[in-house]
Design a protein that fits this description.
about 475 residues, two-stranded parallel sheet, mainly alpha, two-stranded antiparallel ribbon, about 5% strand
Amino acid sequence: MKKQLIITIVFMVVFTIISTGCKKDFLDIKPSTQIIQPTSLEEFQKLLDNTEIMNVGIGLGILASDEYAFSSDLLWQSSFTALSRNSYIWSKDLYEGEPCLHWNLPYSTIFYANNIVSGLEKIEVTNLNNKEWSRVRASALFVRAFSYHDLVSNFSNTYDATTSATDLGVPIRLKPSVDELRPRSTVKENFDQILLDLSIASQLFNNDLPSARTRPSKAAVHALLSRVYLSMREYALAELHSDSCLLLYNKLIDYKTLNKTATAPFGNNHDEQIYARLAIADGTYTSIGNNTSIEMSKEIISMYEPNDLRLPIYFSKQLDGTYDPKRTYYGNGGAFPFVGLATDEIYLIKAECLARRNEVSESMKFLNQLKIKRWDANATIPAKPFQEIISTTPEEALAAVLIERQKELVWRGLRWTDLKRLNKEGAAITLTRTVNSNKYTLAPNDKRYVFPIPDNEVSLSGIPQNPR
């Protein structure tokens, strides 16, 4: 682990220097295993504004989910990496010896966050710098928590209160050194750390939402807490934090105001974004232009009604009738799926939690507040005015919310964790693919829902591998 992590950090730092044109400064690597420590709040903020490290998330769940298909067996066979091919069929050996940025890069993010948290302890807090010091520390804790939640969600079992104290999580690193070897923590320890970091960050942030949504905020903390608690199936707490988020920020976009034919219908800092984060670069799910290698799942495409603007805004229709993903929720900068936080997700969490506690009419109120913003009555002839979704039982309400969740949050990196938690509750969703006349199946709660740790990481550190 030590050698691999050092190599990863050196690579990321060199990339940063090349891409930003920085001269020699605190981003340079010393001959030892330490970077030259920043000493000012301005320098710490520069680290936090390095979006290539701080605003990226794991995309393994997108590669393995049921939201897309390769356009042909030949394109699957010639796909960009072994990871792309093997994730698609849920192979036991995903990497075939290739490095895995989906493991390495989150730990690089954590490394930088740890340096910031540690370095801030050496800065005297005064009346003049208290606000900035608090915001920088809160931001570092936030990005660390986000990365740990990414890691434990992909490389560990779904959180289960009855087994989390023994289920293997991921190593927790809280020190700025890259030399420290850490064993795998438990899933409970991972979530305890995530929740602690976010709790402290919430107290340090003020209520302002930054104009650049690549920077976190108190609203982002509550949005992430809502997502975290949903993944834990702690629905009362997920709802509590969805409320806290929406009290701070609750804007929704009327999709009729967007350009349906544009390659990038969304702007980089549009009104629904709370915190911008993109999936780690992968050629399979890139959407720089029309991606002819893949197509969106026909099952998902069939869910959209003719007046539903999400179909033309999220996807581009090809001559053969299939649909490709457009540039994502981050506008022209979003060549890769948006995996950040936005108000539409929080409305859906609120609606789901209400349905789960039998508040049917309130659940449908939140769901309809979202869906009406996606409806164009004049998209068909004759026009079809929006009709509210009506449910009479909690079961109907929950089913309606989950359908809208799948349609609204498509290609956002959430489907995989949804499959894990819903199957844990008995949804019995089985995934299937056919490639070269071979049928591949992923059963509910299969061990392959937990991605393997890269082999070189296991061999260098001695941590236990996930069974596949």
